[in-house]
Amino acid sequence: MKKIVILTGAGMSAESGLKTFRDANGLWEGHDVMKVASPEGWLNNKELVLDFYNQRRKQLLEVKPNKAHDLLVDLEEIFTVEIITQNVDDLHERAGSTQVLHLHGELFKVRSVVNKSLVYKWKKDLFIGDNCEYGNQLRPHIVWFGEAVPLLDQAIEITKTADVLIIIGTSMQVYPAASLIHYIKPNTPVYFIDPKLSIDKNSYSNLTIISEKASIGVEKLINILTI
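^ thats the sequence. predicted structure below, dont judge the formating
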C-alpha cells in the first residue's frame, strides 16, 4: 500500500473558521503574535498570553472539521496516511484521521513551565495559579516563536517514508516545518494545495500545484490519485 505523507497548515482549518497570524500581517486575532506566541511575550505578560489561548480554546470548541478534513480521512481507505500538521487544533482527529503529528503543539493540552514532559489534556480556561502536581505553573502546550520544535526529528523520519507528499494550506515559509520537503526521496510526487501559493514549478521535481482552497483542492487531488 502506498504511503502518503500530508503536511497541513493554516489553510487546512480556514474553512472551519479558524484564523492564524498569516492572514493579517503578523496579527493573530488582532494580537501581535510576538506578544502572545513567544517566550518573551510570556515573561512580559502571562495574563495576556493565557487569556489569548483561553479565547482560542473556546473558539475551537465551537467549530467543526470541514470537508477537506473529512476527505483526508477517506484516503485512509486506500493508502497508508500520516499527517504532519502545523495547526494546534484537533480537527484532523475529530474528523477521524488516525495518524496525526502536531509539530507546533496542541491547543487542548497544557504543560508545566519547569518540566516539559508533564503534559495534560485541558479544554477549560487556564489561569495564573493553575499548577502541575509539583506546584509549577502550567502554560499552553504550544511551540512558540524562538522555541525548539521537539517533534521535528520524528516529522523528518515520517517524511522520508513518503511515496507521495501532499502539502495543504501552508506557504512553506515557516521554518523548520518548511524544511521537511527536503527530506523526501528523489522523484517523489509532490502536490501543493493552496490558493495563495506562489512557487516556481521548477523549484521541485515532480511538482503539481493545485491553486484552490483546501476542500476543493483535496477533492481534485483525490480524483488524481485514485484514477
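The domain at 20-62+110-142 is CATH 3.30.1600.10 (SIR2/SIRT2 'Small Domain').
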